[in-house]
UniProtKB/TrEMBL annotation:
Name by which UniProt lists this protein: Acetyl/propionyl-CoA carboxylase beta subunit
Coiled coil stretches, renumbered: 12-39
Domain CoA carboxyltransferase N-terminal: residue ranges: 22-273
Similarity comment: Belongs to the AccD/PCCB family.
Single annotated GO MF: ligase activity
Classification lineage: Bacteria, Bacillati, Actinomycetota, Actinomycetes, Mycobacteriales
SUPFAM superfamilies, A to Z: ClpP/crotonase
């Protein structure tokens, strides 16, 4: 047992400055989250309530076990695009009848709950999480199908939504649809492809085409109720398995379906004794300096997220700019890789590779805490084999089969982002702190590279180099890259599963580890060829 000590002094000027910067970033984040919570805005929310209907988050709250947490995913989807923040849907993991379920709820206050390109991306991500972690899926359906003006980006990729649902079912992962309102065209196939379907008297309207389109297509006169009402589907078509009288009744029936799944988690049980960290998680506010060039010790973060602040460090004297070691978090064993001083050298890469192999031998999930500017560059490091050692680490991360969780604390640049299990390496979950930044390199460096290349090209052509234009270009590019490196921008593009308050890290990672334990956790000893 090795209890981590701390050198953080909450009364110091450095701590105060870091905490102040983080608090300001959290306030900005909250303002953006509020946009997602507001759905389609006051007018549409009022109209929806006046129709006697619940909002998606109200439905989710009724569905979940009382006082149980909800880990919302991708709340900032579509941030910075022409579409409303949130992607007209709410997704997340919540506990229903003691079972962790992946919940997807359309937001009918946003353009009739229709699916735009970001709704799809957010839904696909939710489906991936359900499939990889073996979580039953509950869809709370009320959607007018495709967002018609953007059909060119929705129609063809949208087929994956149908495919995902049927593949989840084939994998033995239950899919449940509670239909609260209109469920047109693409929306109609959600109950069509789900294992269990609940519809609500006079509310659910499920059809491939509504009355106007039917009239146009075949000349047939019809109305919503006869064409796709709950009664018709429960009595005649057989698409509805259960007939609810109102929204709370549908939710009650949905909970009953989950109760009857006889769901068993396949992963290991957590250790029965869970001790809180010895150091105050509140202090996570003041650990990452506002200037990411200033290094910080990730052990200060580990000390505030793992059980009892107990961390057995692996190879502490070797490759010291990467901290590796073993801990428990909410009773679940975890191996941690955390960047210490930004740059990854050959030693760090070799240490990471060995550590990942050991975690696979021990069937232990891995947690990556990012603060890296990438692999070391320069002649000496090239000669010492930086490329082959970095590749070795990336090979290990790519082929490791234990679940990975990534948290971007600070910098996550270049191939270092890859080696630390960035988005393209399919971590089961990836969250960012508001202090995080991720890009191919820093804005100033990127602008500088373009400038050097431009200067060399001008010289080669024998032309004069326009210094003023170069300076303006560098400033513009630096600003652009800086803005594109920020967590809200990246979260908007679904490059993470959400931006979290650092103080929630232990809870979020604990919920992820518990969700992960729904599926078997099995390491591998089969990696690609390591270039030694
Ligand atoms: N694509 C894009 N926007 C749509 C849309 C769609 N499929 N369906 C609705 N909207 C928009 C509406 O134009 C309206 O925008 P506005 O408020 O700026 O005018 C907003 O969403 C709300 O629609 P509204 O009809 O007022 O809401 P409602 O709650 O009364 O009804 C629907 C919602 C979905 C039942 C109804 O709009 C509808 O039937 N839409 C067409 C569904 C369809 O045929 N889809 C086929 C997809 S392949």
């Amino acid at each position: 047992m090795s209890i981590l000590q701390t050198t953080v002094d909450p009364s110091s000027a450095e701590y105060a400055a870091a905490a102040e910067a983080m608090t300001a970033q959290l306030a900005e984040l909250e303002a953006e989250h509020a946009k997602a919570l507001a759905g389609g805005g006051e007018k549409y929310v009022r109209r929806h309530h006046e129709r006697g209907k619940l909002l998606p988050r109200e439905r989710i709250e009724l569905l979940l076990d009382p006082d149980s947490p909800f880990l919302e995913l991708s709340p900032l989807a579509a941030w910075g695009t022409e579409f409303p923040v949130g992607g007209s849907t709410v997704t997340g993991i919540g506990v229903v009848e003691g079972v962790e379920c992946l919940i997807v709820a359309n937001d009918p206050t946003v353009r009739g709950g229709t699916s735009n390109p970001w709704t799809l991306r957010k839904g696909f991500r939710a489906n991936d999480i359900a499939m990889q972690n073996r979580l039953p899926v509950i869809s709370l359906v009320e959607s007018g199908g495709a967002d018609l003006p953007t059909q060119k980006e929705v129609f063809i990729p949208g087929g994956r939504m149908f495919r995902d649902l049927t593949q989840l079912s084939a994998a033995g992962i239950p899919t449940i649809a509670l239909v609260f309102g209109n469920s047109t065209a693409g929306g109609a196939y959600i109950p069509g492809m789900s294992d269990h379907v609940v519809m609500i008297e006079k509310r659910s309207k499920v059809f491939l085409a509504g009355p106007p389109l039917v009239k146009m297509a075949t000349g047939e006169e019809s109305d919503d109720e006869s064409l796709g009402g709950a009664e018709m589907h429960a009595r005649t078509s057989g698409l509805a398995d259960y007939y609810a009288v109102d929204e709370p009744d549908a939710i009650r029936i949905g909970r009953g379906i989950v109760r009857r799944l006889n769901w068993r988690k396949q992963g290991p049980e957590p250790h029965p004794e869970v001790r809180e960290p010895r150091h105050d998680p509140e202090e996570l506010l003041g650990i990452v300096p506002a200037d990411l060039k200033v290094p910080f010790d990730p052990r200060e973060v580990i000390a505030r997220i793992v059980d009892d602040s107990d961390f057995d460090e692996f190879k502490p004297l070797y490759g010291s700019s990467l901290v590796t070691g073993w801990a428990r978090l909410h009773g679940y064993p975890v191996g941690i890789l955390a960047n210490a001083r930004g740059v990854l050298f050959s030693e760090e890469s070799q240490k990471a590779t060995q550590f990942i192999q050991l975690a696979n031998r021990a069937n232990t999930p891995l947690l990556f805490l990012h603060n890296t500017t990438g692999y070391m560059v320069g002649r000496e490091y090239e000669e010492r084999g930086m490329i082959k050692h970095g590749s070795m680490m990336i090979n290990a991360v790519s082929n490791s089969t234990v679940p990975h969780i990534s948290i971007l604390l600070g910098a996550s640049y270049g191939a270092g982002h890859y080696g630390m299990c960035g988005r393209a390496f399919d971590p089961r979950f990836l969250f960012a702190w508001p202090s995080a930044k991720s890009a191919v390199m820093g804005g100033a460096q990127l602008a500088g590279v373009i400038s050097i290349v431009g200067r060399a090209a001008a010289e080669a052509r024998g032309q004069a180099f326009d210094e003023a234009a170069d300076e303006a270009m560098r400033a513009a590019i630096e600003n652009q890259i800086e803005a594109e490196s920020l967590p809200m921008f990246l979260s908007g593009r679904l490059y993470d599963d959400g931006v979290i308050d650092p103080r929630d890290t232990r809870t979020v990672v604990g919920m992820c580890l518990s969700a992960i334990a729904n599926a078997l956790i099995e390491g591998t000893d089969s990696f690609g060829v390591f270039r030694m």
